[in-house]
Amino acid sequence: MRRDHSVVGIVALARHVGGFSAVRPQPLRPLAVLSCCFVVACADPDTLAPTALMEGAGDARGVRGLERLGGAGTYVAGQSERFRVHVDPAVVQRVEFSASSGALSASGLTAEWTLPASSLAELSARIVRRDSSDGQVTWQFAIQSPATGRTQSAQAALLATPMPVLDGGTLEVSGGACDVKYEGTTNNVAIAFTTATHPALMYGRWNGSTWALEVVDAMGFNRGGVVEQHVQLQVEANGTPHLLHLRDRQVFYATKSGASWLRERVDSPTEPLTTSSTDHAWPTLTLGLSGAPSIVYGVRPTLPCGTFTCERDRLVVAVRSAPGSWTRSLLSLPLPISTNGNQSLSGDVTFDGSRLLFPAAALNGSFSAYFLIGWTPSGTTVVSLPTSLGGRASMWATGSTRAYLLSGTGVHDVALSTPLSASTIRQSLVEVFSTSQHAVAADSAGLPRLVVNHGNELESVWAGPDGFWRRVELGDADPGHIDVAVDAANETRACFVRARKLMVY
Can you tell me the distance from the alpha carbon of 286 to that of 277, in angstroms, rounded to the nearest whole number? Predict the structure, then answer.
């Protein structure tokens, strides 16, 4: 995949809309239709990696995908873009391009398109096959106006706002973790993110015109420590932030009291965070029973193993009962492993109105199984997940009856019941490979909104009216923790890092 390391502005917004239907899509009315023929003998071998091609919607037999030539980042109205459609020359005889609007010219399998001044536009290819059948494939693009809009203003303001750091410079955005949330009453943007050059945790709040940015935790004189590249954020409706981060391999919680930040260690010095933790098992935060901050993390206590003792991975739920006071519960989950097995966290925690929900793994030698855990102070219940998760899972509860769990192996749609063991789960694939970056939220209709990686790029993904996935490209992204949210206008928002710069889409 191409990577654009020069981007320091706003995030790229567009790509194709995916999903395949046996019914030919009805494109927007084309303003230009050009046809072109290509000779099979002159066609170049199509060796481009599959992840570098955009999948289209429609009758795609013989079409491998669409390649963006020489461009990267945001699609902006008025700029010229070049595309090449990749086909199987043994199947396809001729290609004719059309566009919903904007100037279009084509030569062979390549089209040059001046992007129109509209928020959504389509590029289509009519395919004439050697068996005399034809079909049409359509790619949909979200186009940004050159004029400054809300998202562009927020991004530009973030990157331009002065921010004190340890070297005395301006805002340093060099990390790989971020979380984004919207306040329930004001719909202001709240973000938390980490920096790497000088490890620190930052918090920002966008009120519609300006960013207020603050250092939450960092290295300092007789205070602070090394912040790791992991953060989670929850925001109350009144705007009170709650942050979870790791500092010097310890679990820390932070919140604001007036103008001051309170920082509290969550894990016990006598039972600290397990040093073998991977990104799958990083601690996770939600606002649980009675709105109390609740954190799940892993430990490795010494337990009886027959006539011996051994260290085994276990989970702890910590609930904040008062400022500086945490009630910790070491869990012994009812999972099918012996006392010699491990129990580890496999993703994020969420709250369905009556219980905490989080995924966990049971591991014992070659045996491994995954479960969704329901926790209350009175006990735990479990339900089996049908497949392995394929990496850390993102969780979102839409209420007491439904939750989504998104991992590298797709979306698990959980119809919640009481007891939890009576819940039913359906799995929907998002990609044909296991993704490594994924985040899920829900829209006003209770349907999932996803951000997942497709190779080096991120895609915003949602279900269309026909149920098939629709996709818009967000552009290249660095590895690391990403997040997604849905604002009051029911629009998908996301945060991630590109070329060591924080992107807010």
Answer: 20
